[in-house]
Write a structure and sequence with these properties.
Chain lengths: ~350, ~325
């Protein structure tokens, strides 16, 4: 028999009670002032009781629930022994707690490892799958809006844009999307691709270039990003990260906001190392297709590399420029083709360079 | 600090209405590990069950007069709410996205307007629903809490406050906050006891003015006292009415204690890479609850059940999604 308090669910007054554990029920004999009574709690109607400490609390029945609170006296153990396996004593949380410090440590570290795996491999892979199934028309429509958003507050150099479009028109390009190029006035040596075929080139990078093959390489590289949908994938990836985090921490507001947010930071989105090297290959491919000097790609890299520190941003989003140059050079060695002068491109290049 | 020593539950003497939080970071951590593992396995669908467990633990470890609170909400109830909430949000976000992708500016404007108006209409509904659900699922010694406010008056308070805040460039926000709190607390029941919130926007404004300028003057050091003042403002202005007699909540949280809490929490989060979040929760709960006491004639043994049974969880998670930190 155990001493405890009984609450009848109608008032908050605790009534002193004697509690006995019977085979199929718990018997509670309570007394307060002149009133007294006995309650029989049948096991199936006792509610699951978790997270107890020195005081064990049990609740019974439908609304309003009756309850008892028993302080120590070995009540907990007696319950476990008497009703071993009963539904109201079962808890996966309690049983995990019993594993102690070791269990917590192992559990915590496993979780951390799992989270890292999910973040580093799981989400990018999933995002890539999702992005690949995104219909082309939607991607173009989304890109159009993103592009428009990004161009707000930027000064477009329309003369250079026109000249660059002429150059692009003279190039033999293969792409699922119509390619639209825009030149914006910006001192940062940079260029980036927006989903759906929009390529933005800063005028600083055009000013620095000495050979038109560099420009062809750059366009090839960015068209590669577009064609392989790297920015769509990056966008999907950051959205997935956001959704996962918000689910873990319970805040799902502003999913729409993140898409708009991303519009402004698209030029800072990080592509993976392999995405960059794939786009480098696409740049080389474009040069080959147009029978241009593949060295254009190397010159482009060297130019990017030498123009630090203004370029720090570019380098940090396009990592390991030296490694990339090495890889490009080994690619060049493997593919041999005959270079041909292309007067049309050279004329377009000269026209572009002459725009002030 | 106040005396939180536990007396055995036995004895017939009148119990003192002491508030205490007994939760431990390690226990909550073990619960969160199971929660996160199950959420990962179920791609997040376990979230409502996880949340229910979390709340059940926090409530079970929060004690009034040595008896714990109970959270009766279940994962299943909240899952239904979660799905409905997700559905409503999906519709709104789709409208937003449609507008975003649409080239026509008037269509864009209409879609964005629909999205924001939809959100605006949803928030009072979510607050109301969450309060109804959360209070109905909270009990202590079997006595349930309850929310008696009507949806209409919640809309009135919320929309009035919102528009006046917009018109006054946010200045009305202080009154908006306190009026919302008044509306919520004056409609909250704890058995036959009622709550009241007695501060006005001008009081809150004073707290902010004082906090703002002293924080500037002390190069930020006062910010801990500022935060403490805000917490205490909410606690100290809450009255409990029981059988015609009023008691008051009183917080003895000091700037020093808050400083210890905030800096400690920050260090825990940084050095455990976020794994120590459970300790952050229990430390925060302990700092707030253990420093709070009820002053007056509140008799914890004399509460009577006044609530009817209530079932509906739609907006519990809605409020969560909209990130409305009300209680």
């Amino acid at each position: 028999m155990f001493k405890g308090k009984y609450y009848n669910g109608r008032t908050s007054k605790g009534m002193p009670a004697f509690i006995t554990l019977e085979h199929t029920y718990i018997s509670i004999a309570w007394q307060t002032g002149e009133e007294s009574g006995t309650e029989l709690w049948y096991l199936p109607d006792i509610h699951t009781s978790e997270f107890n400490d020195d005081t064990t609390v049990l609740e019974y029945g439908s609304f309003p629930r009756q309850s008892i609170a028993v302080f120590e006296q070995g009540f907990r153990e007696a319950l476990d022994q008497k009703y071993n396996g009963a539904k109201f004593l079962k808890s996966k949380y309690n049983s995990f707690q019993k594993t102690g410090v070791k269990g917590l440590l192992v559990g915590g570290l496993t979780l951390l490892a799992l989270a890292i795996v999910l973040f580093v491999w799981g989400i990018p892979a999933l995002a890539e799958k999702a992005a690949a199934h995104f219909p082309l028309a939607y991607e173009r429509a989304m890109g159009e809006q993103l592009h428009e958003q990004m161009m707000l507050g930027k000064s477009i150099d329309s003369a250079k844009t026109k000249a660059l479009q002429d150059y692009l028109a003279a190039l033999d390009v293969k792409s699922d999307f119509p390619i639209t190029v825009t030149v914006v006035k910006n001192d940062m040596v940079n260029a980036f691709a927006v989903p759906g075929g929009f390529i933005v080139v800063h005028d600083a990078i055009l000013d620095k270039m000495e050979h038109h093959e560099e420009l062809a390489g750059l366009l090839g590289h960015e068209i590669g990003h577009v064609q392989m949908r790297h920015s769509t994938k990056a966008l999907t990836r950051s959205l997935s990260y956001y959704m996962l985090l918000s689910i873990l921490f319970g805040d799902v507001s502003g999913i729409a906001a993140i898409i708009v947010d991303n519009a402004s930071t698209l030029n800072k989105l990080e592509y993976s190392r392999s995405a960059e090297s794939d786009s480098d290959k696409a740049g080389l491919e474009l040069l080959k297709q147009n029978n241009l000097n593949p060295k254009g790609m190397v010159w482009l890299m060297e130019r990017l590399n030498s123009s630090a520190p203004e370029f720090m941003k570019f380098i940090s989003t396009h990592p390991n420029t030296n490694d990339r140059i090495k890889e490009i050079e080994s690619q060049i060695k493997q593919t041999k083709y005959k270079m041909q002068p292309n007067p049309e491109l050279e004329a377009a290049w000269a026209a572009l360079k002459s725009v002030k | 600090m106040q005396d939180t020593s536990t007396e055995p539950v036995q004895g017939t003497t009148l119990t003192k209405p002491t508030l205490a939080f007994k939760g431990q970071g390690s226990e909550l951590f073990s619960i969160q590990i199971v929660n996160i593992a199950l959420m990962l396995v179920t791609l997040g669908l376990y979230y409502p069950w996880a949340k229910a467990k979390n709340l059940q633990y926090i409530y079970r470890k929060t004690e009034l007069a040595d008896s714990p609170f109970t959270f009766h909400g279940t994962g299943k109830e909240m899952f239904i709410g979660f799905i409905k909430g997700l559905g409503i949000m999906a519709v709104l976000v789709s409208i937003f996205m449609y507008g975003f992708m649409h080239g026509d500016n008037s269509v864009k404007f209409l879609c964005f307007a629909a999205y924001f108006l939809g959100l605006l209409a949803l928030i009072p509904l979510a607050i109301h629903g969450m309060l109804r659900y959360r209070t109905s699922r909270t009990s202590w010694r079997g006595i349930h809490m309850g929310y008696r406010g009507t949806l209409g008056s919640m809309y009135k308070v919320y929309l009035t406050g919102f528009f006046l805040s917009v018109i006054t460039l946010g200045f009305y926000g202080f009154w908006f906050t306190t009026n919302l709190r008044k509306e919520i607390l004056s409609n909250t029941r704890f058995g036959n006891a009622k709550f009241r919130f007695i501060a006005d926007g001008s009081d809150l404004l004073l707290v902010h003015i004082k906090g703002y300028f002293l924080t500037l003057l002390t190069l930020g050091i006062y910010s801990f006292w500022y935060m403490k003042d805000l917490i205490n403002f909410n606690i100290n202005n809450t009255l409990i009415e029981q059988d015609g007699k009023y008691s008051r909540l009183d917080s003895s949280l000091t700037g020093g204690k808050y400083f210890k809490l905030a800096v400690g929490n920050l260090l825990i989060m940084v050095f455990t890479l976020g794994l120590g979040y459970a300790w952050v929760v229990t430390r925060t709960m302990a700092a707030i609850v253990n420093n709070c006491e009820i002053i007056g004639d509140f008799n914890p043994d004399a509460l009577a059940q006044t609530e009817a049974e209530y079932k509906n969880a739609t907006f519990e998670d809605m409020a969560d999604m909209l990130d409305i930190g009300i209680i």
